[in-house]
Design goal:
The complex is a heterodimer of chains A (316) and B (519). With 316 residues, chain A is mainly α. Chain A has 13 helices and no strands. In chain B, strands 3, 10, 11, 12, 13, 14, 15, 16, 17, 18 and 19 form an eleven-stranded mixed sheet that branches. Classes of the chains: A mainly alpha (316), B alpha+beta (519).
């Protein structure tokens, strides 16, 4: 198990290297440098070129990349041109709102999707099942930004129950923190819930009609134990994979929701860094997101072994 | 199974109730004290790239900076240059030297007293950095006479020198000499001024927090534009960066934000019926079409004239702004309300919308279906929409118009290279003097005609204001006749506030001193 985890972590290195070179190349090839964003609309070409040169942005690709890579090996991911902080400080600052939002959204989605998925599978073919499947299909089809707008207008503008936008860090108190996260988390969580409900239902259906479930019932076990212990535990690997993917996408793919609800998270940082051509921030965030995604998947793999001892990681 | 389900439902309901209770809790924003709020929440649409006012051409930077720094002279409500940090001034008999006395007893936010050294350092850097100052006062020098007197010596007797000093784009903010000396190519690193507010905190991409400067020394006179009394009526100003315009507007409707900048034309129509919201509009600049005048088929003046003939500016402006209340079609490059520079010179070739005439004129000029490339960016919807309408009008007039769109940075690179565009559209804020307009600069769209330099010189060295205006009318006519560029319309900026907001003045920038909101 330990060697498997080590191997997986080592396999990250070439992945991160390839990602970094591709991103650096893409950013290098697209026109415009940070000077355009710094100097504004009426800057002349000469002024832009002079500032880009001052920032070292006019040097050959390999020189810039080697310079950056050398820094990374020494723990220096570069400096943001705009934020008056290093890339690592920026990631540290912008990551926590995103993580909070992702955890809250995932909790909402799990609270809804797991019970609904189990009920739909257990009551297959009934009105409850059809309703669950229909609503989850609708949820998958609904664009996230539309749901966000609807939630904002209904709960924020019309009912005035919740703030329409903004963010309060945890240091302002848990309740205030959550208050600002309710609408964006609902927006993200409902869409994720639709997907997880569908997958929970289908993986439960795969196991609920198997012989060992019939045997468990024949033994006289309570129905709840049969479904939740014998059924759910065996459906868990699939469900865990989906949850892992869902959490990974929540941490790394909240650009639209963060923009609409004005949450200063990684999504907003990515968006504004691209607009401003803040090269090292783009590079740092993409590497960080890749790292998070791979680590989340690794965690899911480790969980497989815990919930189902038949799966032994690293053994052939 | 049923029992567990009930337990789960009970748990879920409890969580929902807790969140609802949380939701009704006290607001994070909007502290109050007594009759008025002590916090003013202003939603702006972008993170300022810096607060280095002279070095960055950005309304957000200039607008926030106006609360932190002060200039020697600024514009009053009637657009007249008026002393702020200056106390008085004299002009030498040859008109080339201004001797300016500085107010005594003014202190920077760091407690240091304002002296002539600070003014000389700040003004020298302004002249070097500001794209609005360098072309107008280039070659001028600032020198200290005594601790509270400086001189500005110009190579020529420029009649508009005081107006340039009082300009509000990349304006002449006075900061401590130590800050200026520590500045690098990337800008200053400390934001210290003498204004009614000082910088308390700048949380990147979230907010810029200014707080009242208790030792602020009021300039003389009643509050007027950027001059006179500036009372920090609300203790704390939060410029909150809210990039999504729907979110900004929803925020002012719910009271989350007291004032929001950058209301779009679509939202303007919706908000006019909301009695809890007050709207402020102000013509703020022009939407302009610039022609490539030097490369390929666009070097052919006859083709440019034919394109000019095809343009219907009413349709283009409507496409760009969507509401007739938000634009005015007028050929002037300066504010039509400006008594000195507002002129309709060139109107004989303006806004013709004559597709058939354009087709014939283009054929006569030797146009044979060459590609007319319009570069644009969807990042600025009004520029993008106007480009699409122009392209359609050109196609109807028989031109082979092609739109090339990209993100803002790429667009800026394309429009700076005469080999990459035939036409492009940008919106530009008004300038104090036509000499500062982007259209007359060769760097902007490559315009290289001796008539432009001659016209600029005639404007600046004219013996009287009338002569200066006549020279500008000639130059504006030339720009249209030569097919250099075209003003498609004059746009209005829109700001919305809660109906209860008091003392707000939407001058050239929104002015937030004197603003208060009942608790």
């Amino acid at each position: 198990m330990l060697s498997y985890i080590l191997k997986r972590i080592l396999s990250l290195i070439p992945t991160l290297f390839i990602v970094s070179i591709v991103v650096f190349l893409v950013v290098y090839m697209i026109p415009g440098g940070p000077a355009t964003a710094i100097l504004g609309m009426e800057a002349t070409a000469d002024e832009i070129a002079a500032l880009n040169a001052e920032l070292g942005f006019d040097r050959p690709f390999l020189v810039q990349y080697a310079d950056w890579l050398g820094g990374v090996f020494q723990g220096d991911w570069g400096q943001s041109y705009f934020l008056d902080m290093s890339v690592l400080e920026a990631i540290n600052e912008y990551f926590w709102p995103t993580l909070s939002l992702a955890i809250f959204a995932e909790l909402i989605s799990l609270l809804l999707s797991i019970p609904l998925g189990i009920i739909a599978a257990y009551k297959r073919g009934t009105v409850a099942d059809i309703a669950t499947v229909s609503v989850s299909l609708l949820g998958i089809a609904l664009p996230g930004f539309l749901l966000s707008m609807f939630l904002m207008l209904f709960f924020g503008v019309t009912l005035k129950w919740l703030p329409v936008a903004g963010y309060a860090p945890l240091s302002k108190g848990l309740l205030t923190h959550l208050r600002y996260l309710v609408l964006p988390a609902l927006s993200l969580g409902l869409v994720q819930a639709a997907y997880i409900t569908r997958m929970t239902r289908s993986s439960m259906l795969d196991v609920l009609y198997m012989n060992y479930i019939r045997t468990a019932r024949a033994k006289g076990l309570k129905e709840a134990v049969v479904v939740l212990v014998y059924g759910l535990k065996n459906a868990a690997p699939t469900v865990l994979t989906v949850i892992g993917q869902s959490f990974g996408s929540l941490v790394t793919g909240t650009i639209v929701t963060e923009s609409i609800f004005n949450i200063p998270g990684l999504g907003q940082l990515t968006m504004s860094a691209i607009t401003r051509r803040d090269v090292f921030v783009i590079q740092g965030v993409v590497l960080f997101i890749t790292l998070i995604y791979v680590l989340v998947n690794l965690a899911v793999d480790i969980f497989y072994g815990i919930v189902d001892p038949r799966i032994q990681l690293g053994r052939k | 199974m049923k029992l567990n389900l009930k337990r789960f439902l009970a748990l879920a309901l409890s969580a929902c109730m807790l969140l609802s209770a949380t939701a009704c809790g006290s607001s994070e924003q909007g502290s109050t004290s007594g009759e008025y709020k002590t916090e003013l929440n202003i939603a702006i649409n972008a993170n300022p790239p810096s607060l280095d006012v002279p070095a960055v051409n950005s309304n957000i930077v200039g607008g926030i900076g106006m609360h932190i720094y002060e200039p020697l002279f600024a514009l009053n409500q009637d657009a007249q240059p008026t002393a702020v940090l200056a106390e008085s001034y004299e002009v030498s008999s040859d008109g080339k030297t201004y001797t300016i006395k500085i107010r005594e007893g003014v202190k920077f936010h760091n407690g240091q007293e304002l002296t002539a050294d600070d003014v000389v350092a700040s003004m020298t850097r302004w002249l070097e950095k500001s794209s609005k100052a360098a072309p107008l006062l280039g070659g001028s020098t600032f020198a200290k006479v005594d601790d509270h007197t400086i001189t500005m010596t110009m190579p020529e007797a420029y009649s508009d020198a005081l107006s340039v000093l009082a300009g509000n784009i990349q304006w002449a903010a006075i900061m401590p000499a130590s800050v200026v000396e520590a500045a690098t190519e990337e800008g200053i690193s400390e934001y210290i001024g003498t204004g009614p507010y000082k910088l308390a905190e700048w949380k990147q991409d979230q907010y810029v927090h200014l707080t009242k400067y208790d030792e602020y020394q009021q300039p003389e006179g009643e509050s007027s534009g950027f001059t006179g009394k500036k009372e920090a009526a609300t203790k704390d100003l939060y410029f909150r960066i809210v990039t999504d315009s729907t979110t900004r507007v929803a925020g002012v409707q719910t009271g989350e934000y007291d004032i929001v900048e950058g209301v779009s034309s679509e939202q303007y129509a919706d908000l006019t019926t909301d009695e809890n919201v007050a709207l402020y509009t102000k013509t703020a600049g022009t939407l302009n079409l610039f022609f490539n005048t030097t490369v390929g088929i666009m070097a052919n003046e006859g083709v440019r004239d034919a394109i000019m003939m095809a343009l219907n500016c009413d349709e283009i402006s409507l496409g760009a702004y969507g509401d007739e209340n938000l634009y005015v079609v007028n050929p002037g490059w300066c504010n039509p309300a400006d008594a000195q520079w507002g002129t309709e010179a060139g109107s004989e070739v303006y806004n013709k919308g004559d597709a058939e005439g354009a087709k014939k004129a283009a054929a006569a000029a030797g146009y044979k279906g060459e590609e007319i490339v319009l570069v644009t960016t969807p990042d600025y919807p009004e520029m993008y929409n106007a480009t699409l309408v122009v392209s359609q009008q050109l196609i109807e007039a028989g031109f082979n118009a092609v739109v090339k769109e990209s993100d803002f940075a790429t667009f800026m690179e394309r429009r700076a290279d005469v080999n990459q565009f035939s036409l492009f559209i940008t919106s530009n804020s008004y300038n104090l003097s036509p000499v500062q307009l982007a259209v007359v600069g060769q760097a902007w769209a490559g315009l290289d005609a001796p008539e432009v330099a001659e016209g600029l010189s005639a404007i600046r060295l004219a013996a009287s204001a009338e002569d200066s205006r006549a020279a500008w009318e000639d130059l504006q006519s030339f720009l249209y006749e030569y097919g250099a560029a075209c003003v498609l319309g004059h746009y209005s900026g829109v700001i919305a506030s809660g109906a209860e907001v008091e003392g707000f003045n939407y001058f050239n920038f929104p002015v937030y001193w004197n603003v208060k909101v009942p608790a």
